[in-house]
């Protein structure tokens, strides 16, 4: 087992509750898609396509899912509409399996990467700081020593928010004043973590997209400085997306993928929205694994993404 355990019964209940709005919306649409039909035919598949697109799965991913189901229908000759939900779940799980971190929940830190450096990117307001705080809590609870770096020096509020989380979780925070060079903060943070023999470093970065060239240059500079202190760092670039923004999350993923090499996704604010389908679409379209999902305000409401549990909560009976 990794340091984050797989979704247990309690976590599954939290997941079900967090995805309730999306599930309710999807199941209502699914019911309408097959009304009066016994066999999965072209009409049912057209209706299903509409269900997925309007659930923020995205056009490209929807087409891939429909093609997979069409192959199943052609192979099995006759599929009842009652079987459609099961087949849909199987095909989405298979699609998500193409982009994922090995075994679900197995996130032991690599022994040859100490400290393990995570650079967190994302626009302001997506829950970036909260995600960093919750991650720090998860790692600390697992007995790991954590150092945070406040390299989003563009906003005083970002440094203050991260400091609140650092105090709450009781982990050290390396910061400078607002307007300081982010690469300088990254340098200080990694130097400090290295000297302390820390296990994990989590670096916050600025999330302004209005000047993409500056963002790209800044992230590149921060990465270069990290690599000088700890060769190979950052070991993970985690993009935080707000799931409640639906299609806007696709655009953010597109821009940040251009700006830097994103290796993992954290999708937040899935509770209270009917746009949970975005998790499936973003992972598939950008070929980046979803590593965490946020389904509540609590410090434990950041879950390791379990594709089977997620799809079951979304499309289960």
TrEMBL record:
<dbReference type="InterPro" id="IPR013822">
    <property type="entry name" value="Signal_recog_particl_SRP54_hlx"/>
</dbReference>
<feature type="binding site">
    <location>
        <begin position="204"/>
        <end position="208"/>
    </location>
    <ligand>
        <name>GTP</name>
    </ligand>
</feature>
<dbReference type="GO" id="GO:0005525">
    <property type="term" value="F:GTP binding"/>
</dbReference>
<dbReference type="GO" id="GO:0005047">
    <property type="term" value="F:signal recognition particle binding"/>
</dbReference>
<keyword id="KW-0675">Receptor</keyword>
<dbReference type="InterPro" id="IPR042101">
    <property type="entry name" value="SRP54_N_sf"/>
</dbReference>
<feature type="domain" description="SRP54-type proteins GTP-binding">
    <location>
        <begin position="289"/>
        <end position="302"/>
    </location>
</feature>
<dbReference type="GO" id="GO:0005886">
    <property type="term" value="C:plasma membrane"/>
</dbReference>
<dbReference type="InterPro" id="IPR000897">
    <property type="entry name" value="SRP54_GTPase_dom"/>
</dbReference>
<feature type="binding site">
    <location>
        <begin position="122"/>
        <end position="129"/>
    </location>
    <ligand>
        <name>GTP</name>
    </ligand>
</feature>
<dbReference type="GO" id="GO:0003924">
    <property type="term" value="F:GTPase activity"/>
</dbReference>
<dbReference type="InterPro" id="IPR003593">
    <property type="entry name" value="AAA+_ATPase"/>
</dbReference>
<dbReference type="GO" id="GO:0005737">
    <property type="term" value="C:cytoplasm"/>
</dbReference>
<dbReference type="InterPro" id="IPR027417">
    <property type="entry name" value="P-loop_NTPase"/>
</dbReference>
<keyword id="KW-0472">Membrane</keyword>
<protein>
    <recommendedName>
        <fullName>Signal recognition particle receptor FtsY</fullName>
        <ecNumber>3.6.5.4</ecNumber>
    </recommendedName>
</protein>
<feature type="binding site">
    <location>
        <begin position="268"/>
        <end position="271"/>
    </location>
    <ligand>
        <name>GTP</name>
    </ligand>
</feature>
<keyword id="KW-0342">GTP-binding</keyword>
<dbReference type="GO" id="GO:0006614">
    <property type="term" value="P:SRP-dependent cotranslational protein targeting to membrane"/>
</dbReference>
<dbReference type="Pfam" id="PF02881">
    <property type="entry name" value="SRP54_N"/>
</dbReference>
<keyword id="KW-0378">Hydrolase</keyword>
<dbReference type="InterPro" id="IPR004390">
    <property type="entry name" value="SR_rcpt_FtsY"/>
</dbReference>
<comment type="function">
    <text>Involved in targeting and insertion of nascent membrane proteins into the cytoplasmic membrane. Acts as a receptor for the complex formed by the signal recognition particle (SRP) and the ribosome-nascent chain (RNC).</text>
</comment>
<dbReference type="InterPro" id="IPR036225">
    <property type="entry name" value="SRP/SRP_N"/>
</dbReference>
<dbReference type="Pfam" id="PF00448">
    <property type="entry name" value="SRP54"/>
</dbReference>
<keyword id="KW-1003">Cell membrane</keyword>
<comment type="similarity">
    <text>Belongs to the GTP-binding SRP family. FtsY subfamily.</text>
</comment>
<keyword id="KW-0963">Cytoplasm</keyword>
<comment type="subunit">
    <text>Part of the signal recognition particle protein translocation system, which is composed of SRP and FtsY.</text>
</comment>
<keyword id="KW-0547">Nucleotide-binding</keyword>
């Amino acid at each position: 087992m990794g340091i984050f355990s797989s979704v247990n019964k309690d976590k599954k209940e939290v997941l079900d509750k967090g995805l309730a709005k999306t599930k309710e919306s999807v199941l209502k649409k699914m019911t309408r898609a097959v009304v009066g039909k016994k066999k999965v035919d072209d009409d049912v598949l057209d209706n299903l396509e509409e269900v997925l697109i309007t659930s923020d799965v995205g056009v490209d991913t929807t087409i891939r899912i429909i093609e997979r189901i069409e192959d199943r229908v052609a192979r099995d000759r006759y599929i009842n509409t009652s079987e459609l939900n099961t087949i849909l779940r199987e095909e989405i799980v298979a699609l998500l399996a193409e982009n994922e971190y090995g075994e679900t929940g197995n996130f032991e830190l690599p022994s040859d990467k100490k400290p393990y450096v995570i650079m967190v990117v994302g626009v302001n307001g997506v829950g970036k700081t909260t995600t960093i705080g919750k991650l720090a809590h998860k790692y600390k609870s697992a007995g790991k020593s954590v150092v945070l770096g406040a390299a989003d020096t563009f906003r005083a509020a970002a440094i203050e928010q991260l400091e609140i989380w650092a105090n709450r979780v009781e982990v050290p925070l390396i910061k400078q004043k607002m307007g300081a060079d982010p690469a300088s903060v990254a340098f200080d943070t990694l130097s400090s973590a290295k000297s302390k023999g820390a296990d994990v470093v989590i670096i916050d970065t600025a999330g302004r997209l209005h000047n993409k060239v500056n963002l790209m240059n800044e992230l590149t500079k921060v990465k270069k400085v990290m690599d000088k202190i700890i060769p190979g760092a950052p070991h993970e670039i985690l993009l935080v997306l707000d799931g409640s923004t639906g299609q806007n999350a696709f655009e953010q993923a597109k821009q940040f993928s251009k700006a830097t090499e994103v290796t993992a996704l954290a999708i937040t604010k899935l509770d209270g929205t009917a746009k949970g389908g975005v998790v499936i679409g973003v992972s598939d379209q950008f070929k980046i694994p979803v590593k965490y999902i946020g389904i509540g305000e609590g410090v434990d409401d950041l879950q390791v993404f379990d594709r089977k549990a997620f799809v079951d909560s979304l499309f289960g009976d």
